[in-house]
Structures are given as structure tokens and as C-alpha cells.
């Protein structure tokens, strides 16, 4: 190993440590103090990092909050049971339970609040959600290939319809409503509202 | 007219004047200063009213903001053309244009932001949205009576699906996306995602 590459490697390792320290500090602050106590300055102080270091990786409060949010969901998948209606139901139920039973719901709500007055954070959550809609859409494409999702469906828009239902439940504080609602919504998404 | 009834009537009139002054002041403040500058105290000062007077009518910041929001939409109806898919499309387009072209969008975004950390405001917007879902649902019931909306549909949940799509567009700052998206979403809501 040359002197240069060793130095780079130590630098890279320090960077990773610093990144982790920032994410840990940000998670602790948002959990303990909520959005009102959350600022890049407070995170920098707690992580013993410089504000420019934080901004280098996350250009807005919203972007940093989304990074923490992502860390909260190690194992959330779009189900792929092969039955369209069931997959939509399981996805809605899984996401809503995740929001109810982990700090993820509160963190996501903070991101939404922040994004309503901070254009950089609005851009961050808008881009993030576009990715999520496409991610749901990719699973729906499997159904399209199997022939149980209609050919003319725009799978990204379908992803947006399904995710928007869950997001609205979260931000309107309606997560506690019965699972039967989610089953009915899944059926209505799959079969459509009109008389066949 | 007795002395008592005259006094009551003057009192009632003063109440209405005071109510209007409060709503005007609240509208001016949220439009000029946004949520960061909006407080019951600031509204009271500008309207020359007491804070208890405001709280008597609107128990939370969210409730007062919802009252202003409602004043912004004098003529927004759920369309009833008789064609289900077209009605859903026109509703989505009308609501999104209304949010884009009046202060209503910014005010609604402030209410959402406020509701993420203030439980009283969360309750206010949750109740308000439940009413809106039922209001859309009532129009969908006409379609059910005519036979073009399936019998097994829960019209309130259908209202929630449609409204949630629009609300998510607003809060993710995606109102500028093309109308074609809304037409596609309306078709997918009406016909369903699955192969018929």
C-alpha cells in the first residue's frame, strides 16, 4: 500500500465515521426534540462536525431527515404474492404498521412539515416520492408481465395512487383506523370504481 | 322590540363584525408572513380582538386556518357530468388549479405543516378531511344510484382515494405536472388496475 492510498483510506474511514455520527445525532435530536428542536446547527454541535460537512452530503434539512427516515426501514418490501389486490393490501398495511410502530412515522411527518415552507426540502421529498412511486410501479410491472394488471396502466401513476392513500392517512393522523378500510381501498384500486 | 332583544341583536352584530375582522386579519397574516409569522396572538393584535374571543370560535390554529381556507373556495364543486371517469378527472383538475391559482394552496400547506406537530390542529384537519371524503362520496352515490358505480364500493373510501391523490400532489410540490397525469389517474380509479 502506498503512503497516498493509505492516507486516502484513513480519510475515507473518517468520512464514514463522521457520516454515522451525523446520522446518529440527527436521529437522536428529531426523536427527542421534534422538528422544533431540529436544525443543522444542533446536529453539527451534537455530532462534533462542521455545518459545511453536513451540507456537503445533505443539501437541506429535508434531505438529512429523509436519510434518517430511510435508516428506519431495513426490511420494508412491496409484497409480491402474485395476487394484485392482496399485494396492494399488504403493502398499505405494512407501511402503516411501520409508521405506527417505529419512529419512522414521526420522522416522515417532520419531513412533510418542513417541506411546506422550505423549497429545498420540498424538492428533496418530491424527488424521494417520485423514486418511491417508481419503486412500487416496478413491482406492479411484474403483475403486468403476468397479465393480471392491464396493459394500459401507467405503473408509476398507480404507485402514486397507492402511496398517496397511505401518506394522507399519516398526515391526517388517521393511522389507527381499521385494517378493513385498507382491504376495501385495495379492492377498489384493483377492481376499479365503475360497474364492470 | 324589547330592550333585551335589541341589546342581543347589537351584540350579535358586533360578534359578526369581530368574526369578520378576525378572519380578515388571519388571512392577511398567513398570506404576508406564512405559518412562521402566524399565531393566535398576532391575529388578535391585528384584529383588535381578545385571544379568548378567537379561541371561543376556533379552538386551534389549525381550525382558524381551515376557516380561512374555506373562504378561499366559493365555487368549487364535485362535477356531476354523469360520466364517472370524467367527473373524477374534472374534480382533480379543478382542485389542483384552485390550489395553484389562489392563496388556498399555500394556506392548505400551512395547515398540513401545523398539523404535524400540533395535535389539536391534526384533529381539526382530520375531521375536516373526513367531511370532504364524505362530500365527494355523496356525489359518487349519485353514480351508484344510476348504476355506473359498482354496488360494493364504499363511497367514502373512494372519496378518500381520490382526494388523497390531489393532497399528495400539493404537499410534495407536484402541482405543475401535466393534466395528462390526472386523466390517467382518473381512468385508473374508474376502471381499476387489474385486467378485466
UniProtKB/TrEMBL annotation, chains A, B:
Signal peptide bounds: none
Keyword Transcription: yes
Span of domain HTH tetR-type: 16-76
Annotated DNA-binding residue span(s): 39-58
Entry keywords, A to Z: DNA-binding, Transcription, Transcription regulation
The keyword Transcription is assigned to this record: yes
Entry superkingdom: Bacteria
InterPro entries linked to this entry: Homeodomain-like_sf, HTH-type_TetR-like_transc_reg, HTH_TetR, Tet_transcr_reg_TetR-rel_C_sf, TetR_C
PANTHER family membership: HTH-TYPE TRANSCRIPTIONAL REGULATOR RUTR, TETR-FAMILY TRANSCRIPTIONAL REGULATOR
Protein name (record): TetR/AcrR family transcriptional regulator
Organism (species): Rhizobium oryzicola
High-level lineage: Bacteria, Pseudomonadati, Pseudomonadota, Alphaproteobacteria, Hyphomicrobiales
Amino acid at each position: 500500500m502506498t503512503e497516498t492510498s493509505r492516507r486516502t483510506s484513513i480519510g475515507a474511514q473518517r468520512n464514514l465515521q463522521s457520516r454515522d455520527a451525523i446520522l446518529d445525532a440527527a436521529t437522536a435530536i428529531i426523536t427527542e426534540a421534534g422538528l422544533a428542536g431540529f436544525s443543522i446547527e444542533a446536529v453539527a454541535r451534537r455530532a462534533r462536525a462542521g455545518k459545511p460537512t453536513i451540507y456537503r452530503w445533505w443539501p437541506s434539512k429535508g434531505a438529512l431527515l429523509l436519510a434518517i427516515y430511510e435508516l428506519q426501514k431495513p426490511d420494508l418490501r412491496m409484497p409480491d404474492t402474485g395476487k394484485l389486490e392482496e399485494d396492494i393490501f399488504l403493502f398499505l398495511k405494512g407501511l402503516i404498521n411501520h409508521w405506527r410502530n417505529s419512529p419512522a412515522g414521526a420522522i416522515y411527518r417532520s419531513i412533510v412539515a418542513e417541506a411546506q415552507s422550505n423549497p429545498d426540502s420540498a424538492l428533496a421529498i418530491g424527488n424521494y416520492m417520485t423514486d418511491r412511486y417508481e419503486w412500487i410501479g416496478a413491482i406492479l410491472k411484474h403483475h403486468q408481465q403476468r397479465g393480471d394488471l392491464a396493459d394500459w396502466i401507467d405503473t408509476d401513476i398507480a404507485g402514486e395512487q397507492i402511496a398517496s392513500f397511505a401518506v394522507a392517512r399519516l398526515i391526517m393522523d388517521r393511522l389507527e383506523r381499521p385494517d378493513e378500510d385498507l382491504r376495501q381501498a385495495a379492492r377498489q384500486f384493483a377492481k376499479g370504481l365503475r360497474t364492470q
